[in-house]
Structures are given as structure tokens and as C-alpha cells.
Recover the amino acids of this structure.
């Protein structure tokens, strides 16, 4: 041990004087001894003295160059005394060489002590050279053990340095995918791809020699609050080095969720589950799963001794920094599970307690492993990562998964499916060092709290819970008592959650367009015995009239052939999909991609993102439409009221209003209502935009955004009192959001029939997932305009039921991709019911009230014009903004997307702001060609918009209409509030509005 120590010393960088602040007298310190301070190299001592302030001072032989040290402990290594004794002994031993020859050899090579013979015949016992070195090292180790290990302070400094490089927690590199060796591995987005021969699985990144992509690395890398994780060999075979996301099994109709009580119950059979349904308690059939990444700090102890490659506890890598790994046999398998029910995922690593000192040195010296030592408690620590996938608790999409939003309803900012209340089945609870994830338990195990930088009527989280909640891009574990630290899930409560994205799931029941549109299976033979499988509409199929019947799955005499699986390939869906396969998009596919980049986004990256939006490569997200046909009596003009009606239409000056009883159908802004007047043969389509006063609790859809639909085009008309009459035969088609999000390409379903025919159909009278087309609004002559852009067509896309027939027939229909039409000469349209199935693409934007500023100087001065029907020439964006299907097939010199310059734009304080009506946005003449197929065009102004550090693209757009002579464009870009109608120079009503891309493009530089 040291002969002298001081509990507090002060020394300035570049000085020789070490001041003993704590008062210990250095009377035993000698010239030639060494001063040692934690984290620094020893320095030789010249002398000691008392300064003018009566404090003891140690003077060094050279200037101190290892940084300022304030109030830190120090020790003195007393090397002088030991070497003096040795030197005296050696001096005398030289006089007696023969007597001391063996002792001198022992002194140089052995440990312990040796005896030297003096001239006077006496002996002197001294420590050997190795013994002196060993004891000096022991003193160093006692005060500074494992000098090769990274210290806590250094690791934190590295974290801060990493955070200063990036804008937020997020993806550093996306990794590469594989599009070459297997057609079943379809690219979803950068580095992410399907694995369609492996049930319930997606892949992210790969390093196997066949990878492709633009990423800087084969394996993805992420930054979580300054911890860099290389993601490889997680949950998968180590040879490919990919991450395998493993999902829970698809729903089979046996689980219910009550949206009021938040109680989820799994029943013995589907029959019991459906019998348990109430207004709020529903069988879960339309589920969305959430992919997350949890990062936490753990202490390496005797009870938890394993360390893992790259800090990934679910790693299956066979080596860690060149050291062979073994399967963790200390932690239970539930510690590694990706989801409840995952009993296969395990982790491999190295048992730290059993590792040799040299092995520990190798593992701790590799910064990828994120292992560091804490001198304060004598323990090693490792930052760790696990992937967790949560099944949607109820039907529809997750309500709260944006780490930047501090929500204004419920428990604000919590990561949850549908609020945070007992019995806590909706919120996601932190797991960290716990053996099992507590989510879905009956007790509140804490929750994940958002950063809350996008606060809505609340202070951001960091103002409430401390600066730890200021980390952008992640949720932080918070205790059930709303404390900022939850120590029982990680050391110092350091536990974070990064949201990766969502996946839309099919269920195991029968596919039926009305009763179970998210189903996948076929029907058994209607005799209940035959082993053959049939689509729902085939003659030999059972007749299904209830939703519960679609889940009579299993052995004889069940109704549903429950084998719509990868291995049995018995899909009953028009798109041929299986319930246990995760696809790249649409129903049963990957949906929201929330792997936002950690790197600050610049102008070049924004330009690339904008180009992907115009070319249709941006995935977009859309809520699947659900349509119902209802009768709607005409109530007359003025303020006539009939609150007993569930559906009604009445006249309001120059407009009409449609009322829907919310107890019958709940609607929200942006839903659509189509009015069908069979007597006059006219069809009008409007958007739900306000709450009405007609009766009690009705919803209105006014004509301010309504249009008449003729031959697939929508003509805006003013409504007048002579349009409708009491004796007219009037219906409405209500198309609302289903609550189910899809992304990219998905199955579109259009029903073409007179409304009264649909109300008589047991197969469609209860609504369907898709849109409605009225026969009087589309062309005859065996062709029909589809409601959405036609991206792909199936071999037999048309299913029809003739008048007076009970048997459906599936036939081919020739697609017209230019006009998004279908041709079929089998039976004339409008004489029965027709169902058209095809592939369309999700909208790229969502409507916003107003886009009132530029946050960055980009996009200013450029108006874009869209008219071409090709996806790569902006047709999907054209439809997303205006609702019009582009039908112009003339590429022209500009390839369907043309730029024209702005002439004037008003400026605000510190940023560009949109002009008021007195200061219009003006631009050059549009100079578009005459449109083919009577196509509409769109002019738009893109702007960069930043909210809470996240970058979005906003659009202000105007619809362009050609009357046969001209476009009637005034050279102004109308930029009002919300979507509204204006009149062009030809007297035509056109739509103007504002929209924003669904997902942010990235982050600007973090200012925190």
C-alpha cells in the first residue's frame, strides 16, 4: 500500500506545484517518489514544502501535463526507500561476489526477498526486483484497476461527442438488402426487405456477398443518445448477419378488446369471443403490430455475467471481437424474446465472470461492445439493445407512437396503443434488465414518455421531467409515478425506446370483402366434409352472413379452410396473400417506416426526397376506406329538422347538407359522402367538414367542397333548390376511414351497382373496405372508371352478380392504365353488382389547414405542374393532392412534370410567408399542352417546413381545368385556408388546398 495519500489535491495543467487541500502532511514523501492521480500517469517528486497560505505542497520534477485536477484524491508510491535499500545491499555485495552470486541471480529473477552477506558478516534482507514491481503494480491496481478498460467519464465524453455529430437518435446507415438471389426477398425501403418463405419475419441488412443497395455499410447502424450500435446477426442465422424481426401469430378471432375499459381477453373459441361483443368490446381481427428497439444500461454482475456482441442481447454471432461465444445460460429465454409467445430467440455472448483477464481486455478494448468500468463502485457496465415487437391490442392503428408529440388527450406523451389506464394493457412498459417484458400485465410497470417537443396544450416533457427527456427521436422509461427515472429497469434509469415502424396484419379467418376484408382463408365445401377449398363467392362455398362465421376455423365440420399460409398456399384473397407472411406494403405488409436518419438533413438530401415524392417512390400512408350505402330522405329547404332520421339531406341556400347519426356511423373530417339521386340520374361527392345543427349529434357534409361525378371526372357545381325534390329516390354512400393504415401498393376494391341493389345483397349491405361507383357516374359500353389510380391488374379482376342471380362469377377485364379503367364484355355494367379488385397506391400526403411559412430557403421560386398518368411523372402525387386521376399520356418535352418560376411572393418576419388575398402569389404562364382524355392538371408550390426539428415537405396546390379552349388560369396560386373552391378565368370551379407528406424527411441539426 502507499505510505502517503491525500483525499483532496489541486494541480493546474502545466504547473509543478501540487497543493494538498485536505491537510494531510507529506512528511514521509521523499525525493524520487512518484505522485499518482486516478486516470493519469505517475510523475516523479522533487520535494515538499509549505507555501505562503500554510498549505502543504508537493513539487514535481517536471510540469504536469495531464489536465486540471481539482479536489481529487492522490497517493504517493514510495519507490525511493525500496531502491535505496537494494542499492546499499548491492554495493556491499560487490565486495563479496562469490558469497552473493546466487543471491544476485535470485534478486533479478524471483519474487519475495533475498539475503545479501555484508562485509562484516551480517546479512541484509531486501525485496527482489520482481517483488518491488509487483507491489507497485498492486498499489496501482488497488487505486486504478484494469487500466486498459474505458472509464465512465471517457465513455460519457464519447457519447456527447457522438451526439454532437447527429441531429437526433436514429439511423446512421440503413444497411443493404437482397434483390438478386430470391424473388421472395422484396425490398421495402433502404436495407429493409421481406422474407416471404419464412413465417412472420422481416429482414434488415445483410452481409453475405449478395447484398445490394446504396448504404455505406452492409449492416445497419443506429445512434441512440450517443451510443452507436452496429446491427448484425440478431435473431437470425449468423452467416447472413441480418436482423430478423419476428412477429406474433396472426389473430384467429378469439381475442376481444374493450376500448373503454382497456381490457383484452383471449377466449376459448371464436364463437365465445363474438358472443362477448358489445358497443365497445370487439373481437380483434384488424391488427397493427409495432416494431421497436429498446436500449438500456446494465451492470455486469455475478447474477448477470454475460456480455454480448455489439451490446445486442439477441445476437447469435458465434464470436465477439474474435472471442468465441456461447448461449447465455443464466438469463431465462423470456429475457431475449422479441414478443410475447416468442420462445425461440436466445442470445449468445461471453460469460464475464469466467473470462480470463486477457479475454476481458480484448472485449473491453473493442468500442463496438460498449463496455466500460466505473471506479466509483468497481463494476463493469455494458450498453445493450433488444428488439421488441408488440401486437396491436385492439383493431386499427396505434394512436401514440411519435416520440416528439406531447399529446393533448389521455395520458400525455405515453407510448401506447390507446391510452394509459388500468389494467395497463394498452401502454408499452419498459423491460430493460427485467427477465420479461411487463407490457400487457395487470400492474403499472411504468411507461415510455415522449420528448414532447411538439407540445399540444402542455409543456414539453423535458420541462416537466428534466433534461433527460430532451433527447430527440426516442422515448424514455418513466416510472408509474411520473418520475423522470425508473431505476428498476436499467442502471440510473437509462432505458430508451426507438420506434422503427408498423406492420399491418391479416387475420386467419375467411376473406370476405364485407364481413372480413382483412381475412385470408377460403371456405370448406358447403357439405362440411370435402377437403377442397373455395373462395367465398363460389357455388360450392358456404354462404357466409356473419362476421363470426368467417372464424369457424379448424377441423370438421368447420366452415373455414384455415390454411392461407406460406406452406399450404390456400389464399382466398384477390391479391393471393397469406396471413403468416409479412409483405412489403398494403394489407399484411410493412406500413409506417419511422427509421428516421440521425444525420442532419441538408439541401441535397431534401432534393432527393422531393424527387422520390414526384416519382412515386415515396411510400405514403393511407387509411383504408370503408363504404356503406344508406337511404337518405330529402327533408326540404331552410332549417327543416327531423331528428328521428338516421340519415337525411336538406337544402341550405345554395348548398345541401348531409346528416349522419353518429350512433349509426361515426365520421370525421376528411371522410366522404356521395349523394345519388336516381330520379335525376345525378351523383355528387362531398367531404365531411363540420358538425351540423340538424337534429341532435348529426354530422354535416356541405357542398363547399362537393362535386358532381360524370364519366370518372368530377365537375364542381353550385347547388340550387330545384336539384332535389321530396319524391326523388335518394341514397348516400358514406366512405369513412376504417382505422387501418396501409402503405405503398395495396388492394383497391370498387363496387359498381345501383344503391338499392347493394342494400338487397347479403354480401355487401353491411359495407365493404373500398369505394363506391354509381353506374350513372361512369361510362357504359363495357367500361368503368375506377375510383383510384390503377397501378397493377389481376388476371381476373371483375366479380359480378347478375340481376336475379344468386351466383357470383369471376371474369377477366382488360385494364386501361392510362385512364384507370376496366373493360369487360361479359355482362353490361349497371345490370347487377360488380366488384373490381386491383392494385393501387397509398396517398403520399395528408390535408393540412394552411402552410404558412418556409423554415429553410429551398423550393422558393419554383411552381411544379403535374398532368401525366405515369407514376414516375407525378401521377400519385397528383391524385393525393386533388383527388383527380391523371389521364394525360403525352410526355411532351417536360416528361409530365414541368417547372415554372414565381413572380411574386410576400415575405414575413424572418421567413417566407404566404400572401394574403391582397398580395397574391403570381407565376409565369403555365403553358401546358392540351390535355388528352379530358385530364385535369395540378399546379403546386413545394415548401420545406420544420416542426420541432423534423423536416417536412408541404404543398400548396391548385387544380387546373381545361374547357376545350384554355386552362383559364389567372397566373395566381390561390393559398387560402384549408381545401376550398375558387373560380378560374373560364368560370369553372377548381379546388385549392394545402397538404403535407405523411412522414418527416429527417432532422435538422439538434440545437440542444
Amino acid at each position: 500500500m502507499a505510505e502517503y495519500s491525500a483525499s483532496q489535491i489541486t494541480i493546474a495543467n502545466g504547473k509543478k506545484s501540487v497543493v494538498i487541500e485536505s491537510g494531510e502532511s507529506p512528511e514521509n514523501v521523499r525525493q524520487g517518489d512518484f505522485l499518482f492521480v486516478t486516470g493519469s500517469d505517475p510523475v516523479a517528486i522533487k520535494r515538499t514544502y509549505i507555501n505562503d497560505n500554510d498549505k502543504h505542497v508537493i513539487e514535481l520534477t517536471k510540469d504536469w501535463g495531464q489536465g486540471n485536477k481539482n479536489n481529487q484524491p492522490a497517493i504517493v508510491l514510495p519507490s525511493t526507500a525500496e531502491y535505496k535499500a537494494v542499492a546499499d545491499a548491492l554495493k556491499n555485495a560487490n565486495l563479496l561476489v562469490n558469497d552473493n552470486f546466487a543471491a544476485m541471480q535470485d534478486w533479478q529473477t524471483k519474487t519475495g526477498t533475498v539475503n545479501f552477506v555484508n562485509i562484516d558478516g551480517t546479512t541484509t534482507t531486501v525485496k527482489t526486483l520482481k517483488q518491488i514491481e509487483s507491489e507497485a503494480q498492486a498499489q496501482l491496481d488497488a487505486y486504478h484497476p484494469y487500466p486498459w478498460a474505458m472509464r465512465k467519464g471517457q465513455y460519457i465524453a464519447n457519447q456527447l461527442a457522438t451526439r454532437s455529430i447527429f441531429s437526433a437518435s436514429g439511423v446512421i446507415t440503413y444497411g443493404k438488402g437482397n434483390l438478386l438471389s430470391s424473388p421472395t426477398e422484396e425490398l421495402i425501403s433502404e436495407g429493409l426487405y421481406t422474407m416471404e418463405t419464412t413465417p412472420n419475419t422481416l429482414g434488415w441488412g445483410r452481409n453475405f456477398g449478395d447484398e445490394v443497395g446504396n448504404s455505406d455499410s452492409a449492416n445497419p447502424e443506429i445512434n441512440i443518445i450517443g451510443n452507436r450500435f452496429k446491427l448484425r446477426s440478431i435473431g437470425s442465422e449468423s452467416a447472413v448477419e441480418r436482423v430478423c424481426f419476428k412477429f406474433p401469430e396472426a389473430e384467429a378471432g378469439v381475442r376481444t378488446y374493450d376500448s373503454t375499459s382497456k381490457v383484452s381477453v383471449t377466449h376459448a373459441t371464436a364463437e365465445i369471443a363474438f358472443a362477448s361483443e358489445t358497443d365497445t368490446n370487439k373481437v380483434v381481427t384488424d391488427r397493427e403490430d409495432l416494431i421497436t428497439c429498446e436500449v438500456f444500461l446494465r451492470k455486469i454482475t455475478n447474477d448477470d455475467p454475460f456480455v454480448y456482441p455489439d451490446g445486442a442481447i439477441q445476437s447469435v454471432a458465434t464470436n465477439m471481437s474474435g472471442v468465441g461465444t456461447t448461449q447465455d445460460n443464466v438469463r431465462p429465454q423470456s429475457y431475449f424474446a422479441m414478443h410475447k409467445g416468442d420462445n425461440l430467440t436466445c442470445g449468445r455472448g461471453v460469460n464475464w465472470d469466467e473470462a480470463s483477464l486477457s479475454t476481458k481486455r480484448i472485449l473491453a478494448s473493442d468500442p463496438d461492445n460498449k463496455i466500460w468500468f466505473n471506479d466509483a463502485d468497481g463494476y463493469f457496465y455494458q450498453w445493450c439493445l433488444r428488439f421488441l415487437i408488440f401486437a396491436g391490442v385492439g383493431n386499427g392503428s396505434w394512436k401514440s407512437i411519435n416520440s416528439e408529440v406531447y399529446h393533448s388527450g389521455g395520458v400525455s406523451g405515453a407510448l401506447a396503443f390507446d391510452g394509459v389506464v388500468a389494467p395497463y394493457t394498452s401502454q408499452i412498459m419498459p423491460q430493460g434488465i427485467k427477465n420479461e417484458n411487463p407490457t400487457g400485465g395487470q400492474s403499472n410497470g411504468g411507461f415510455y414518455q415522449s420528448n414532447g417537443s411538439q407540445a399540444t396544450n402542455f409543456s414539453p416533457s423535458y420541462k416537466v421531467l428534466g433534461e433527460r427527456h430532451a433527447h430527440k427521436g426516442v422515448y424514455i422509461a418513466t416510472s408509474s409515478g411520473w418520475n423522470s427515472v425508473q431505476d428498476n429497469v436499467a442502471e440510473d434509469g437509462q432505458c430508451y425506446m426507438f420506434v422503427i415502424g408498423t406492420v399491418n396484419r391479416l387475420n386467419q379467418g375467411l376473406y370476405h370483402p364485407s364481413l372480413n376484408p382483412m381475412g385470408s382463408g377460403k371456405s370448406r365445401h358447403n357439405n362440411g366434409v370435402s377437403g377442397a377449398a373455395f373462395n367465398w363467392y363460389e357455388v360450392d362455398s358456404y354462404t357466409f352472413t356473419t362476421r363470426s362465421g368467417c372464424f369457424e376455423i379448424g377441423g370438421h365440420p368447420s366452415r373455414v379452410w384455415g390454411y392461407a399460409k406460406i406452406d399450404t398456399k390456400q389464399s382466398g384473397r384477390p391479391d393471393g396473400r397469406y396471413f403468416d407472411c409479412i409483405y412489403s406494403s398494403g394489407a399484411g405488409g410493412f406500413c409506417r417506416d419511422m427509421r428516421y436518419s440521425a444525420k442532419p438533413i441538408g439541401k441535397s438530401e431534401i432534393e432527393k426526397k422531393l424527387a422520390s415524392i414526384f416519382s412515386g417512390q415515396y411510400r405514403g400512408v393511407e387509411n383504408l376506406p370503408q363504404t356503406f350505402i344508406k337511404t337518405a330522405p330529402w327533408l326540404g329547404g331552410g332549417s327543416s329538422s327531423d331528428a328521428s332520421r338516421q340519415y337525411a339531406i336538406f337544402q341550405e341556400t345554395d348548398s345541401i347538407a348531409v346528416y349522419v347519426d353518429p350512433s349509426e356511423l361515426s365520421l370525421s373530417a376528411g371522410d366522404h359522402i356521395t349523394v345519388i339521386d336516381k330520379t335525376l340520374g345525378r351523383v355528387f361527392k362531398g367531404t365531411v367538414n363540420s358538425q351540423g345543427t340538424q337534429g341532435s349529434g348529426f354530422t354535416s357534409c356541405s357542398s363547399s367542397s362537393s362535386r358532381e361525378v360524370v364519366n370518372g371526372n368530377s365537375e364542381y357545381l353550385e347547388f340550387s333548390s330545384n336539384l332535389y325534390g321530396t319524391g326523388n329516390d335518394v341514397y348516400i354512400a358514406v366512405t369513412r376511414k376504417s382505422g387501418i393504415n396501409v402503405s405503398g401498393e395495396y388492394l383497391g376494391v370498387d363496387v359498381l351497382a345501383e344503391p338499392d341493389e347493394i342494400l338487397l345483397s347479403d354480401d355487401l349491405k353491411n359495407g365493404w373496405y373500398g369505394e363506391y361507383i354509381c353506374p350513372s357516374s361512369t361510362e357504359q359500353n363495357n367500361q368503368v372508371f375506377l375510383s383510384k389510380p390503377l397501378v397493377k391488374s389481376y388476371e381476373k379482376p371483375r366479380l359480378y352478380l347478375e340481376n336475379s342471380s344468386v351466383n357470383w362469377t369471376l371474369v377477366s377485364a382488360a385494364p386501361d392504365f392510362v385512364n384507370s379503367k376496366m373493360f369487360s364484355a361479359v355482362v353490361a355494367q349497371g345490370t347487377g353488382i360488380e366488384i373490381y379488385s386491383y392494385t393501387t397506391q397509398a396517398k403520399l400526403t395528408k390535408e393540412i389547414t394552411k402552410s404558412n411559412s418556409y423554415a429553410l430557403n429551398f423550393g422558393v421560386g419554383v411552381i411544379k405542374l403535374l398532368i401525366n398518368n405515369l407514376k414516375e411523372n407525378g401521377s400519385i402525387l397528383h391524385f393525393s393532392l386533388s383527388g383527380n386521376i391523371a389521364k394525360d399520356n403525352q410526355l411532351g418535352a417536360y416528361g409530365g412534370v414541368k417547372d415554372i418560376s414565381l413572380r411574386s411572393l410576400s415575405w414575413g418576419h424572418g421567413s417566407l410567408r404566404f400572401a394574403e388575398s391582397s398580395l397574391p402569389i403570381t407565376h409565369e404562364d403555365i403553358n401546358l399542352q392540351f390535355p388528352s382524355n379530358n385530364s385535369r392538371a395540378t399546379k403546386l408550390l413545394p415548401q420545406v417546413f420544420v416542426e420541432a426539428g423534423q423536416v417536412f415537405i408541404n404543398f400548396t396546390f391548385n387544380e387546373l381545368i381545361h374547357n376545350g379552349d384554355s386552362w383559364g388560369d389567372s397566373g395566381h396560386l390561390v393559398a387560402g385556408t384549408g381545401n376550398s373552391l375558387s373560380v378560374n378565368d373560364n368560370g369553372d370551379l377548381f379546388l385549392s388546398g394545402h397538404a403535407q407528406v405523411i412522414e418527416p424527411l429527417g432532422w435538422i441539426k439538434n440545437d440542444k
